[in-house]
Amino acid sequence: MPTTEQISFEGPLGTLRGMLHRPDGVDPTPAVMLLHGFTGQHIESDRLFVQVARALADAGFAALRFDFYGSGDSDGDFEEFTLDTELADACAGFDWLSTQPEIDPNRIGVVGLSLGGAIAALLAGQEPRVKTTVLWNAVASTREMSEKLSAGPYGGLVLGEALLESMRAADPAATIRQATGPVLIIAATGDTVVLPPAAEAYAASLGGKGTLRWFEGGDHTFQHPDWRRTLFAWTIDWFRQQLG
Q1: Domain range list for the chain
Q2: Most Cβ neighbours (<10 Å): which of 13, 20, 72, 240?
Q3: Helix (H, G, I), strand (E, B) or coil at 110
Q4: What's the sign of the alpha-carbon dihedral 34, 38, 43, 46?
Q5: The pLDDT value given to residue 27
Q6: Are 110 and 124 in contact (CB under 8 A)?
């Protein structure tokens, strides 16, 4: 029976906390790292990341979900995070996962949701050990996102100027061209947060390394059980093909 345990590891700025789901089976196993979105955390909206991590473990994959610095249970304040700190956290998470004795370091993939998708794209573009990447309604233009956020506080959260500067400087859709592994882009046609041009930008940048699947209907975080069953099936099938 799959197991779940609370874990922590050190990021560049502090301790990062989350959960590791382990499957049944003979070690070493393939693994997937989940990267949450803006203002999200390792549980995600309506337990999206809990559900997909359990589905991955049932399918034979270990799954790591953790909070970026300044989010959820991890150290730091929200106003301190930037795209650079999140990318550094993702690198630290990947390093930690790859050193676990039950994980096959040569079979690790990444899923990124929304802004976490942009971080996944940046990671895949600089880390050749990422075997494959799956983007869920991923932000492609962080510069455009920075313009929308520049008006001031976001709900009860304070946005740091360094965050906006890092968003203006980054180009996830261009960076992912350097990815060594294939990329699956899943985009919900009913998403009103990240619009279709984002998925099209990733697909155009990746060329033959990218596979774009339109999810008819849906919304930004797939808030219906039927949508999630389909999303998880597509994602797990992809990892079975790419990670074995």
Answers
A1: 3-243
A2: 20
A3: strand
A4: negative
A5: 86
A6: yes
Residue pair 29/102 in contact (Cβ under 8 Å)? The answer is: yes
pTM of the model: 0.98
**Residues in contact with 91: Cβ distance below 8 Å, sequence separation at least 6, in sequence order:** 123, 127
Within 8 A by CB and 6+ apart from 108, the residues are 30, 31, 32, 33, 94, 97, 98, 129, 130, 131, 243
Tokens 């301190």, residue? 80
Instruction: Read off the amino acid at residue 221.
Output: T
**Spatial distance between the Cα atoms of 204 and 103, rounded to a whole number of angstroms:** 33
Residue 113 to residue 231: CA distance in whole angstroms: 12
Q: How far is CA 66 from the centre of its chain?
A: 10
Measure the CA–CA gap between 120 and 113, rounded to whole angstroms.
Answer: 9
CATH fold for domain 3-243: Rossmann fold (3.40.50)
pLDDT band at 25 (very low <50, low <70, confident <90, very high): confident
- Whether the pLDDT of residue 152 is over 80: the answer is no
Give the three-class secondary structure for 235: helix
